[in-house]
Amino acid sequence: MTSRRSFIKATTLASAGLLVRPSALFPVPSKYIGLQLYTVRDAMQKDPAGTLQRVAKLGFNSLEGATYTGTQQFYGMDAKAFAALLKQQGLIMPSSHYRLGEQQMKGADVQGTMLHEWSKAVDDAAAVGIKYMVCAFLAPEERGNLDHYKQLAEHFNKAGEACKKAGIQFCYHNHDFEFQQQDGQYPYDLLLKNTDANLVKMEMDIYWVTKAGLDPVNLINEHKGRFPLWHVKDMDSTPEHMFTEVGNGTINFKKIFQHAQAAGLKYFFVEQDKCPGDPFASIAKSISYIKKNLV
After folding, report:
1. Rg for the chain (alpha carbons), in Å?
2. Which residues contact 247 (CB under 8 A, 6 or more apart)?
3. DSSP-H helix ranges across the chain
4. What is the CATH classification number for the domain harbouring 179?
5. Range of the domain at 240
6. Positions in the chain short of pLDDT 70
């Protein structure tokens, strides 16, 4: 029969183990550790197959795409060929980035965007197995005043409807400009309020939320279930608050990951927009920290 003393000892040890691994208390999708391919964009442009092989060897098993817009292909390949390459490397790409399409390139509309041939983009995404199509960025001329953000919300709802028909979820990825107040309001709050919560989810870029002066945990708790995707990248301690490897900066990821369930997190992706040297060295440091501390 178990004594009271041995029981207390056992449960104390178990609790200590849970504290060491936050994911044991607050489940995160630890099966997948993702990489946003923008981090290795130069290598992907030169040698997609070799780059994906290196990424897989480092331990990443899921990806987020970055370059469909403008080419209407995936890194120079059609959907079928790119899907085959992913399978060959044992990778999945559950998410990919896209553009709005108000901004023109050399005076011409950009195809494969939310405003131009979105239906083809959705079909191609479905063929690759993408589950989330994400508006990656708003160019300065695509932002505007609060009335324009309301129009953007309508565009997002419409894009989300098209995605839903294909079994895909539409999302919006933030930077920090959405948290610059206009008439006492954050444009980000306006987007959240004016989009259908079922049609439009959010990809939280933890770095940019933090740089804007907000607490990611507070944002999660205010909009529970709205953040199925995260960008995980750290902020250094210099006055410029530059990008750095996960675990090498000032962001408390252990605390944030404890709220994965409240966020509705499904996938997270390491992203480092700028690296001090070889991007592969940087992402190796990031995934090492993540494996040891977050999942």
Report:
1. 20
2. 234, 253, 285, 286, 289, 290, 293
3. 4-20, 22-25, 41-46, 48-58, 79-88, 118-128, 146-165, 187-194, 206-211, 216-222, 253-257, 260-263, 279-293
4. 3.20.20.150
5. 26-293
6. 1-27
With tokens 């607050």, the residue in question is 26
Q: How far apart are CA 22 and CA 12, in angstroms?
A: 16
φ, ψ of residue 262 in degrees (nearest 5): -65, -35
Q: Give backbone dihedrals phi and psi of 193, rounded to 5 degrees, phi first.
A: -70, -35
What CA dihedral angle connects 119, 124, 127 and 131, to 10 degrees?
-70
Tell whether 5 is covered by a domain. no
Spatial neighbors of 65 by CB under 8 A, at least 6 apart, are 37, 74, 75, 93, 95, 96, 97, 130
* Position 1 in a domain: no
Number of domains in the chain: 1
What integer best gives the mean pLDDT of the chain? 92
Q: How far apart are CA 192 and CA 153, in angstroms?
A: 8
Residue 166 lies in a domain: yes
CB count in 10 Å sphere of residue 30:
15
Which residues, at least 6 apart from 280, have a Cβ–Cβ distance to it below 8 Å?
Answer: 40, 43, 54, 58
User: What whole-number distance in Å separates Cα of residue 281 and Cα of residue 287?
Assistant: 10
- Angstrom distance (rounded) from CA 288 to CA 110: 38
Residue 70 lies in a domain: yes
For residue 276, give the DSSP letter: S
d(CA 94, CA 150): 28
Q: What is the pLDDT of residues 235-244, one digit of tens each?
A: 999 999 999 9
